[in-house]
Design goal:
The chain is of the alpha+beta class. The protein contains 1 helix and 7 strands, in the order E-E-E-E-E-E-E-H.
Length: about 90
């Protein structure tokens, strides 16, 4: 199973992996070097392509979540910890 990269570029955004556990990931999102927010998502294995899936728009609110604004890091970490403890 091909793991996710530490740096992913998608739709003009840069995503940097900050944390990983057996059940999920936390990535920092940037646009042109400016912090946007965090994305937290469950680990999804794509059997067809033999890789871990990075979420698309349809995943949010189902197995992926975005956090931005005041307290984004704390809220993202809380969600990541809830995934980690599963």
């Amino acid at each position: 199973m091909t793991p996710l990269k530490d740096h992913i570029r998608k739709n003009g955004y840069d995503y940097f992996q900050e944390q990983e556990c057996a059940h999920g990931y936390l990535y920092r999102q940037e646009l042109h070097g400016e912090f946007i927010g965090y994305e937290v998502f469950r680990r999804k294995e794509n059997e067809r392509f033999g890789c871990i899936s990075f979420p698309g728009g349809e995943a949010f609110g189902v197995w992926a979540w975005s956090f931005w604004g005041d307290g984004a890091r704390g809220r993202a970490l809380a969600k990541f910890e809830s995934i980690q403890s599963q």
